[in-house]
Automatic annotation (TrEMBL):
PROSITE patterns: ALDEHYDE_DEHYDR_CYS, ALDEHYDE_DEHYDR_GLU
Family: Belongs to the aldehyde dehydrogenase family.
NCBIfam families associated with the record: SSADH
The enzyme's E.C. designation: 1.2.1.-
Active site per the UniProt annotation: 249
This protein's name: NAD-dependent succinate-semialdehyde dehydrogenase
Gene3D superfamilies attached to this UniProt entry: Aldehyde Dehydrogenase, Chain A, domain 1 (3.40.605.10), Aldehyde Dehydrogenase, Chain A, domain 2 (3.40.309.10)
Annotated organism of origin: Photobacterium rosenbergii
GO MF assignments: oxidoreductase activity
Amino acid sequence: MEQIKNQSLLSFLSEPDCHTLKVTNPATMDVLGYVKTTTSEQLCDMIETAHLAQKSWASLTAKERAAKLNHWFQLIIENQDDLARLMTLEQGKPFAEAKGEVLYGASFIEWFAEEGKRAYGDSIPGHTSDRRIITIKQPVGVACAITPWNFPIAMITRKAAPALAAGCSFIVKPSELTPLSALATAQLAYQAGIPKEVLQVVCSSNAKSIGDTFTHHPLIRKLSFTGSTRVGKLLMAQCADTVKRTSMELGGNAPFIVFDDADIDSAVQGAIASKFRNAGQTCVCANRFYVHSKVHDEFVLKFRAAVAGLKIGNGLEDGVALGPMINQAAKDKVDNIIQYACEQGATLITEQKQHDGLFVSPAILVDVEQHMDIVQEEIFGPVAPILRFNSDEELIEMANDTPYGLASYFYSQNINRIWNVAEALDYGMVGINEGIISTEVAPFGGVKESGIGREGAKQGLDEYLDIKYMCFGGIA
């Protein structure tokens, strides 16, 4: 790949054979390269190695680990363009958006490098005069993760950084669709002095086999997963046999709400940012739009005009806002969702041009009703169904009518309404007059069937730490 200036990032590329994984550009369908795959037997050896290496890594001071993490952060920043270009090539998102993800992913490394120094315990007043009680925090051990293709760097660093900062060793299986970004990021970690045995990347198209090994191996003490609710439930069930710690960031069905007192122009900008980032292929993107009847027509008119200005194409081209869907199955799903919604009574108000390859025109649907399938399922594509509402009570009932509870968004200028609605929405995250809410300094995660645990912020470090209570007796 001549587009990558730092060819050392690609030292993992291999010649094709029966033990390699082919990586394809979804925008052009060109083959980008091949990477070696990992068998279940090899993974077991990797886990053993990680178990031994974790002891030495945990014996370093938090400051020593932080120095290596900060060096990793700096190398990612220095190679931002190459990493972003590689991400666009294998994943499809626009180059500017990919650069933003590289910075976002790096921010977790920088944050947890410092946060790892603050894994504080407590001194607790004793229950008798001759006893003293303290608690300390220790790394859980070997942690593993399974990450998706839609954020191929950030979803890894958001898990790896706190694990490494806490003193854990870490093994990650990235999506078979986007292994290049993961391997290139790991190369920079090794250059920063993080041992290869402490941070390992597993490439495989057999997700079930790798997942079975992760969940059943007794030396794995923590599993973090970002993906579908269906798969997350299976992994949680399998982890029960060895009572592993788990973090689950699962499916979403985010409502985007526009009240009658909202700043409509601001709401349209937020809607574009939330809905069409990564061509709608994010778990926190707006999935269904609830617009008050008084401002419905104004919002739809301005929203449709903004959507019409989005350029579709190869993410390496200037001005492109929407890249391709990740594969044919994803494109077919979006096409079927639009078709079935229209069959159920929705009205398509945007022009759906036919594109070659995996590109899909952004779609806006009106006359959508709460009972329709498009409202009840996660779309994961550039489709915006819009529903009307007339009262706050009606809105809250419709917005919470889902088993998911990851992200939600609403626009209002009324401070009383803002507090009441923010508290009433049954979601782990609420964006208020804001369409982009992810940041390393805030806890990311959902409620209900959208998962358990939090990533980022100080809470993200605790996910990789055990609390040990020590009782000192016989104190005269």
